[in-house]
Structures are given as structure tokens and as C-alpha cells.
Amino acid sequence: MNGGEIAEKKFIATLGCLIGQRLQLLPAQSPPITIKTLETPFKQSLRPVGVFPASTTPQVIEQLTESGLVTFCKNHSIGKAGPYSKADVFINGVGYSLKYTNSSPPALINHTRRTGWEFAAQHTGASIAQLDILISDYWRLRLSGVISEDTANSDQNSPFSKHFNTLLPFLEYFAFDGTATKLSYHPANEVIEFSDPCDITTWRLLNKTQLIASLWPRLVFSIRSKKGMPSARMFSSMTVQEKASVMQWSRQLNGELKGALHVRIRH
Q1: For residues 22, 26, 27 and 29, what is the CA-based torsion angle, rounded to 10 degrees?
Q2: Which domain of life is it from (predicted)?
């Protein structure tokens, strides 16, 4: 397991120590949560976290070695969420995505061609036409040398940085609700950020808009080739509409067809 996976499992195990107790998360005005049930996603269902021995405390969880943690989680049904689960844990039936702030930030949206963003638009009511304008601006600026492949929101020339409201529903969808082709089996309602999985004082609750707003200054957008782009065989089997959608964002550059929008989080 990597550091992020270890931290998430320790976080859920720490929650298991708190069943029946009242949990107060930052910010202070967040409503307290009395933990009655605790579950983790398993395929298309949820699996209750097993009851811990009375001697198990957050301090005990903190001291577990990686192998000890693996055994503990196996014995108490603490699993890792699958690729079609946006929530990592369910508290009282509410799904929460977990974000460990001390690990390298992952991509917010992996290389995704226009058809995937259309899928998101269909399920959110967001405007793909407004996004098309931003992509057109990206290519105009990139091909003229004003920006490079990666363009950060901190760059005053970024075509995306001043369009938070246009991108917000898309970013919320991919962070909480689904992928480019499928709605999540287990969508997340909110996010819990933490720097120490066993120290409750480092846990912070964020809703969808708060998460995206907190990440916005650190987002980097790019349009790339290969990953996210259809193979020649896949492209030939697409409908006329799907082909036109893919090509609307794509440009031939340095011998490669680039058309997959990638959004990552910078430190």
C-alpha cells in the first residue's frame, strides 16, 4: 500500500473506534455527527465495519504496522473503494470521500475526451457549449505559444482561470458523482480532508463547492494525446456523432492527435 492508502485505512479504522460517539469536525460550525453505522463500499453494495475489541483506540490504530493494518482491516471488513465508488466510507448512510493532505495530490480528472465531458453534462445540466468555448481558447493560446500544454489557474493567460462557474458542475461531477462513462455505484456527498488519520483535530469537512473552491488556485489543465483518446479501431466503431465530438476538441500536434482534457492538482 502507498502512504495515501495506509492513511485512508487508518482513518476508517479510527472512525470505527468512535461508533456510538459524537464527532465534531472542523470547521467548528459544522453540525456534530453521532456515529451510529459505519460501512465501506464493496462492489455494488456496502459492507458494515466489524465491531472492534474494547481495547482498540485511535492510539492503537496509529501504531499498527502496514502488515498489522492489513490484518486488522481484513478482520473488520474495512475495504478499499473500487473504481466506480466516489465515496470511501459511509457514516450513518452518508457517503464521504477521503482526502489525505500529506500525500501527492492525484489527478482530479484523468485524461478524458469530449464524449466523457458530454456524459457529465447530461447528468448535471452543465453547458458543454460553454466548455467548448474555453477549449477553443486553449488551443488558440497554445498554438500561438502564449501557453504551454499545461496551463495553471495561477497563470494570468489561462483560458480556464476566470471561469469557475462554468467548470464547477463538471469538476463536482467527476469528484463526487461519476466517471466519463458511468455514474458511481457509491457517490459521495461530502469530503473529509485530514493530515493525520488518527487525530480528529486535523479532520475538516467540505461540501462539493467548498472542495472545488479550495482546489481551484492549484488546478492545472492540459489537453493530451494517447491516454483518454480512442484507438484507431475504437474510433472506427464510433457513431458519426461520437467521432465529431472527439474531433471538436482535438488537434494534430507533433505527430499526435491531442484531445483529452486532463485536470490535476498541483502542490
Answers
A1: 10
A2: Bacteria
